[in-house]
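Because showing beats explaining, we think one record worth quoting, sequence and C-alpha coordinates together, and here it is:
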Amino acid sequence: MNNSAYAIVHFFPGGTKEQYEASVAAVHPGPGQRPPGQIFHAAGPSDGGWRVIAVHDSKESWEAFRDGTLMPKLQAGVEGGFTTMPEATEMEVYNLLQ
Protein backbone atom coordinates (compact mmCIF):
# COMPACT_ATOMS: atom_id res chain seq x y z
CA MET A 1 0.00 0.00 0.00
CA ASN A 2 1.05 3.55 -0.74
CA ASN A 3 -0.92 5.96 1.40
CA SER A 4 0.68 9.09 0.01
CA ALA A 5 -0.11 8.53 -3.69
CA TYR A 6 -2.74 10.72 -5.32
CA ALA A 7 -4.76 9.96 -8.45
CA ILE A 8 -6.41 12.22 -10.99
CA VAL A 9 -8.88 11.24 -13.70
CA HIS A 10 -9.51 13.85 -16.39
CA PHE A 11 -12.27 13.51 -18.96
CA PHE A 12 -12.27 15.74 -22.02
CA PRO A 13 -15.75 15.63 -23.62
CA GLY A 14 -15.39 15.25 -27.38
CA GLY A 15 -11.61 14.89 -26.99
CA THR A 16 -9.60 12.97 -29.56
CA LYS A 17 -6.29 11.10 -29.77
CA GLU A 18 -4.82 13.92 -31.83
CA GLN A 19 -5.84 16.54 -29.25
CA TYR A 20 -4.37 14.37 -26.49
CA GLU A 21 -1.06 14.00 -28.33
CA ALA A 22 -0.76 17.77 -28.82
CA SER A 23 -1.74 18.51 -25.22
CA VAL A 24 0.53 15.93 -23.58
CA ALA A 25 3.45 17.11 -25.72
CA ALA A 26 2.89 20.63 -24.36
CA VAL A 27 2.71 19.68 -20.67
CA HIS A 28 5.09 16.72 -20.29
CA PRO A 29 8.88 17.20 -20.20
CA GLY A 30 9.49 15.09 -23.33
CA PRO A 31 8.31 12.07 -25.31
CA GLY A 32 7.75 9.11 -23.00
CA GLN A 33 8.61 11.20 -19.93
CA ARG A 34 6.39 12.06 -16.99
CA PRO A 35 6.39 15.26 -14.96
CA PRO A 36 8.22 15.24 -11.62
CA GLY A 37 6.27 13.19 -9.08
CA GLN A 38 4.03 11.46 -11.61
CA ILE A 39 4.41 7.70 -11.21
CA PHE A 40 1.69 6.47 -13.60
CA HIS A 41 0.03 7.83 -16.73
CA ALA A 42 -2.59 6.21 -18.95
CA ALA A 43 -4.87 7.69 -21.58
CA GLY A 44 -7.42 6.50 -24.09
CA PRO A 45 -10.78 6.95 -25.73
CA SER A 46 -13.80 6.84 -23.46
CA ASP A 47 -17.52 7.13 -24.22
CA GLY A 48 -17.95 10.59 -25.70
CA GLY A 49 -14.38 11.79 -25.39
CA TRP A 50 -10.90 11.13 -24.07
CA ARG A 51 -9.83 10.13 -20.55
CA VAL A 52 -6.44 10.63 -18.86
CA ILE A 53 -5.52 8.86 -15.61
CA ALA A 54 -2.46 9.94 -13.67
CA VAL A 55 -1.05 8.95 -10.31
CA HIS A 56 1.39 11.19 -8.48
CA ASP A 57 3.57 10.27 -5.53
CA SER A 58 1.72 12.87 -3.43
CA LYS A 59 -1.10 15.39 -3.58
CA GLU A 60 1.55 18.09 -3.36
CA SER A 61 3.38 16.96 -6.51
CA TRP A 62 0.05 16.81 -8.35
CA GLU A 63 -0.87 20.32 -7.22
CA ALA A 64 2.56 21.65 -8.24
CA PHE A 65 2.17 20.17 -11.74
CA ARG A 66 -1.47 21.24 -12.02
CA ASP A 67 -0.87 24.83 -10.90
CA GLY A 68 2.56 25.37 -12.42
CA THR A 69 2.26 23.63 -15.78
CA LEU A 70 -0.98 21.87 -16.70
CA MET A 71 -3.67 24.47 -16.08
CA PRO A 72 -1.67 27.51 -17.27
CA LYS A 73 -0.91 25.77 -20.58
CA LEU A 74 -4.46 24.43 -21.06
CA GLN A 75 -5.97 27.82 -20.19
CA ALA A 76 -3.62 29.56 -22.65
CA GLY A 77 -4.58 27.04 -25.33
CA VAL A 78 -2.45 24.38 -26.95
CA GLU A 79 -2.37 24.42 -30.74
CA GLY A 80 -4.23 21.31 -31.85
CA GLY A 81 -4.92 20.38 -28.23
CA PHE A 82 -8.06 19.92 -26.18
CA THR A 83 -10.50 22.78 -26.62
CA THR A 84 -12.23 22.49 -23.24
CA MET A 85 -11.04 22.21 -19.67
CA PRO A 86 -11.32 18.66 -18.29
CA GLU A 87 -13.91 17.25 -15.97
CA ALA A 88 -11.75 16.20 -13.03
CA THR A 89 -11.98 13.54 -10.35
CA GLU A 90 -9.25 13.42 -7.70
CA MET A 91 -8.69 10.87 -4.98
CA GLU A 92 -6.23 9.72 -2.38
CA VAL A 93 -4.90 6.32 -3.36
CA TYR A 94 -5.54 3.62 -0.78
CA ASN A 95 -3.78 0.81 -2.65
CA LEU A 96 -1.31 1.10 -5.53
CA LEU A 97 0.09 -2.10 -7.01
CA GLN A 98 3.21 -1.71 -9.12
